[in-house]
Amino acid sequence: NIFDEEDSVFLSNFPTENNDYNINKYVYNTWKKIFYIRKKFINLYESVRQLNQLGSTLETKITIVYGKNYNDVFNDVELLNMVLGSWDIKYKLSLEKEDVFNLEISKSKYKKCNRCWRYINNIKNGLCIRCTQVIHQF
Is this prediction's pTM over 0.90? Predict the structure, then answer.
């Protein structure tokens, strides 16, 4: 045990590596791509925001064209929506190049949900479908 008292620090055992926290190469590479996408998005978003064309990322419409090398990232679009902070995202797989990644942003045409503030399709009575279901549970 590393917390046992020894006569000298030099007689103590070194802590052992805990492999429970290691992530596999697939997960690491997927998150590396997600952070790359987020960085490209934030840079583009900031340049448009400074022109006063957008307020928050929530009101951003994002169009993403990606190659086959990014398929693993787009398996969980809900995660990507949260990472980018927008729910008005259109995804299109490009069959031309495997490593292509293009990003375009503009202001969303959808209305804002009064509860979650997402700009999303199917807003009725000021609420999106998800928030309407939550409200009706209570």
Answer: no
